[in-house]
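Lay summary. Proteins are chains of building blocks that fold into shapes, and those shapes determine what they do. In this project we predict the shape from the chain. Here is one chain we studied, written as its sequence of building blocks.
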Amino acid sequence: MAEYVIRVGSRTAQGLRNNNEDSYVADPNRHVYLVADGMGGQDSGEKASGLAAEIIPRVVQDRLAAHQAPGKVVQQALHEAHQAIVDAGQRQSSARRMGTTAVLAVEQENKVFVAGVGDSPAFLVRGDRVEQLTIDHTVADALARNGTITPDQARSSPWRNVLYRFLGCAEMTEDAEVRPFAHEKGDRLVLASDGLSGFLTHDDLRAGAKQFPHPQEWADHLVQMALDRGSRDNVTVVVVAFDGE
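And here is the predicted shape, written in a compact code that computers can read:
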């Protein structure tokens, strides 16, 4: 069996927003990687993404220690964070809905188990191949997937930032879809908030994986690139590199 060294880079930037509602986890010791993009106003968005970053690693660690299947562990961690955010939102005096996106990756048994809720994507870069492992849960992307509008129309649609699934969404009843993959030497896994992914192309990912062998240097570059290209949102990224020992 091949041995791997896992190296991680991460960065978040407030950008032009008044505060940073993004949270992230980059923890190779617990095999957990997460980007969460909060919503619902300053206090609510920060609280929602912070709850996700607090609860998800703990649930993953506890349930892996109990020898539960990694795919189920990912689903349960997202579910418990979702329920905590729903409960916290019900205790708010504000009428604004509190929630957060979440893209989660758990490395276990020489595989990575990825799931996303919302529009914070996960990308796998393997050589010259780039694959988005998650789908964006926006109304515009759903319309594009069922053929009502084209992908080009989705990118300029007024529905492109309207989410129908996120942690804290009272109408969300189904578990997150988990996408496992067996990692290979040289793979790069990129988790991003939409403040970055909206300014990122597959060509950028192909080129950057070669140009920046160290994941921290690449994470710094990606965030600065999004800001330079005009992102007005919070910008967060976690880069996981799987290299030979």
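What the prediction tells us: Helices lie at 42-65, 70-90, 139-145, 151-156, 194-197, 202-211, 215-228.
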